[in-house]
Structures are given as C-alpha cells and as structure tokens.
Write a structure and sequence with these properties.
With 201 residues, this protein is α+β, with helices and mostly antiparallel strands. It has four helices and four strands, in the order H-H-E-H-E-E-E-H.
Length: 201
C-alpha cells in the first residue's frame, strides 16, 4: 500500500513536472517570438525615423545651398550696380556740373534752344535759371536774348535749379528742362549699358 502510494505520488509529481516544463518552454518560445516581433518593429521604426531625418537633412542642405547661392548672386549684382553707379556718377556729375554752372556755356545753349522755339515767328518765352548765376545771366536773359529772338523773354531765378535752365513758351504751362539733374539722368542712361559691358563683360 505504501509502495503504491509512493508510485502514485511520483507519477503525479513527474507528470506535473513534465507539464510545467512543457508550458514553460511554450511560454519561453512565445516570449521569444514576441521579442523578435517587437525588435523587428522597433528596427523598422528606427529605419523609418532615420530615413525621414535623412530626407529632412537633404532638404535643409538643398534649401541652404540655394539660399546661399541666391544671397551670393544678389550681393554680387548689388556690388556691380554700386560700382557702375559710382563710375557713371563720377564720369557725368562732375562734367555736367562744371559745364552747366558756366555762364558762357549756358548762354550758348539757351540761344540755340530759344531759336528753335521762334523758327515759326516770335514767341514770348519763360526762362528759369539758377539763383547762383543771377548776376551773370540776368542781363543776357532780359536784354540780349530778347534782341536776338525779336520776342519777349521773362526770366526768373530759382534756388531749386543748381545748374542749367528750364525754358518754355509763355502762358503755355509747359517747359523743357535742361538742368544738371536732367542732363545727368539722360547721359547716365546712355553710359550705363556701355559702362556695364566694359566692367563686367
């Protein structure tokens, strides 16, 4: 009786042990599969994050390179423009200022222009001259020019006109400008393309 009880106890113990061992192995295998799945998923997510980061880095690199190239191009263009303006200004402003503040030179231009207004007969003219040249030009404008043209000339002097003059038919409300400012603009428009080509090809 004692032996049979022992055998039964051993049998139950061995079966329970075997069953527990089997369940443990199954759980271990299942856990291993789950761990591999989690690892694979984590690796896939890591690769996706790296790929996204690389793409963003490439986009930033491309944009930065483009921005640097654009900024560089704009800077070069602005520098060229400054050089061009400096040279054209130096070439024109000094020469124009010198001539259009010369009373003799202004007299010659006024005569030439005024004669064009009177080709079809006497026309009274309005003249606006530099205030700084009033002493030199007033006798010419009010007396000599009227005799030359055979018509009336009304001369006024303005501080707004630094050099040159403005002329137009009296009472018509319009005039032609031959001031230093208009000459500078006109001459620089012609000089700019040539200067640009000489400097930068």
């Amino acid at each position: 009786m004692q032996n049979k009880l022992q055998e039964l106890t051993d049998k139950l113990y061995n079966e329970g042990l075997a069953k527990g061992k089997q369940e443990g192995e199954e759980l271990l295998a299942k856990a291993k599969v789950q761990a591999e799945e989690i690892l694979a998923k984590a690796q896939s997510e890591a690769e996706r994050i790296i790929a996204t980061a690389q793409k963003q880095a490439d986009e930033i690199k491309t944009k930065t390179a483009s921005d640097v190239k654009m900024a560089s191009s704009q800077s070069i263009a602005a520098t060229k423009k400054d050089i061009e303006n400096l040279i054209v200004s130096k070439m024109t402003v000094e020469a124009v200022k010198k001539n259009l503040t010369s009373p003799d030179f202004i007299k010659e231009i006024i005569k030439t222009v005024a004669e064009k207004f009177t080709t079809d007969g006497p026309v009274d003219l309005n003249l606006i001259l530099p205030e700084s040249l009033k002493n030199d030009l007033e006798p010419f404008a009010t007396k000599e020019l009227a005799k030359i043209l055979g018509s009336g000339v009304q001369a006024s002097f303005s501080k707004k006109v630094a050099g040159g003059f403005q002329i137009g038919p009296k009472g018509e409300g319009w005039f032609v400008s031959f001031t230093d400012e208009t000459f500078n603009q006109l001459i620089s428009e012609y000089l700019r393309p040539a200067t640009k080509k000489i400097l930068f090809g």
